[in-house]
Amino acid sequence: MKWIHCLCAAFDREAFLQFFSRVLQVLYRCTNEPSAQNDGELKRLTEEVTGAVEAHVGREIYADAMRTVILQFSKKRAERKRQQAVEPILNPAKAARMKIKKHLTRKEAKKRKTQDRDLELGRLVKKSRPR
């Protein structure tokens, strides 16, 4: 994030606009990804850099470019969702493997959760046998 702030300060407006869309993609990812939501420092720094970039290029240009970036990301997300919905029809064997894997992951998570709860309560926990 700091490098984006430095780019904003180092380049004039016209030079900065050449790679402005890439910068906005990074800023959008940092503000909207679930992993970034938990990091307070990253969130604060992203807001600070976003304000500096917006002030450097102008509010109207920033809003138009950000709208374009959001549209690109939503199109990609919709395409992935569509592809995932069609996958069981196009490749049923792969879809079955993925479904089994997903259920095993859920089963293991449930086991881990109950073991953690039992450890907290001081209950005796049996060790699972290796498969």
UniProtKB/TrEMBL annotation:
Q: Which domain of life is it from?
A: Eukaryota
Q: Where is this region: Disordered?
A: 99-131
Q: Identify the InterPro entries for this entry.
A: SSU_processome_comp_20 (IPR052575), UTP20_C (IPR057525)
U3 small nucleolar RNA-associated protein 20 C-terminal domain residues are 2-115
| GO cellular component terms, A-Z | 90S preribosome; small-subunit processome
Q: One Pfam family from the UniProt entry?
A: UTP20_C
What protein does this entry describe?
A: U3 small nucleolar RNA-associated protein 20 C-terminal domain-containing protein
